[in-house]
Amino acid sequence: MFELNKKNTHPKKTQYPMKTKNSLFFIPLLATGSLFAQTALDNAGNYTSWTDGSNQGTGFQNWSFNQNSDGSTLFAGHFLGDSTDGAGDINTGSQSFGMFANPSGAFSTAIRSFASPLSINDQFTFQMGVNFDNGNKGFNLRTGGDSIFNFNVGGGGASVSSANATLVPETSVAYDYGGNDAVIDVVMVVKSASEIDYQISRASAQGVQGTLFSGSVTGITASIDNFEFYISDTDAGGAPANNLYFNNLAVSTVPEPSGFALFLGSSAMFWIARRRP
Q1: Residues 188, 198: contact at Cβ < 8 Å?
Q2: What residues contact residue 217 under an 8 Å CB cut-off, 6+ apart?
Q3: Could you give the CA distance from residue 85 to residue 91 in angstroms, rounded to a whole number?
Q4: Alpha-carbon distance 62 to 72, whole Å?
């Protein structure tokens, strides 16, 4: 059904030399790098095959797949492929994680647990490539089998919701599909044992740009220990623009505001001292 395009679309980054005169300014940043430490990391470039039970990342448990393809009337599954076949470029190593499910009645899910439940100041980020908004495709952040945050594209639009906690929206704009280059960035930060903040942004040459949804989820009563990507009921034919692509999953520990201020102050004092004759 899919012909994978392995072309490399990433431009080579220009390297700029660091001025020796100011090089010691970067020592505090390196010394406090643990403030921004990544505790979990995975991307599709780590895989030569992506199957139920596989795991080539760190800080996550194995992938768990479910789908109801029968090979004749329902078609659903998981694959590694070039996200630019159907959406924007979120590739690493020329590929992303992908899922398909068509026509109506078909579904596919990919569930994964964190090696340890998310804790205060953890930031969970990833990218999605979504084009057509038929069927349903999206993401659930979960406590056990319960979703406490959902982002869904389908039915001619997009939405965020919480089935088992309280959604407190700040920004919510009308979703306009389109653009074979569409990339969605998702950021979620644990603020307390019962609250997370979320921000979902979209970049494309077409449709709505910038922040689509932001706000918080309160009233969480259990540990956030897993997440789910899903797709269902897309149009028949298996067009790549109907697929769900995602990639570049990471959990990082972000600094407390007071700790970050102290870090900036220390860096500034070091710079002033360095500038003295």
Answers
A1: yes
A2: 148, 149, 162, 165, 166, 167, 168, 195, 196, 198
A3: 11
A4: 29
Alpha carbon distance 160, 197 (integer Å):
13
Helix H or strand E encompassing 160: strand 157-161
Q: What is the pLDDT of residues 109-166, one digit of tens each?
A: 999 999 999 999 999 999 999 999 999 999 999 999 999 999 999 988 899 999 999 9
C-alpha span between 266 and 272 (Å, rounded):
10
Domain boundaries, the chain: 34-275
Residue 90: what residue type?
I
Residue that is written with structure tokens 């991307």 in the block: 43
CATH domain 34-275 topology: Jelly Rolls (2.60.120)
| pTM as predicted | 0.81
pLDDT band with cut points at 50, 70 and 90 for residue 59: very high
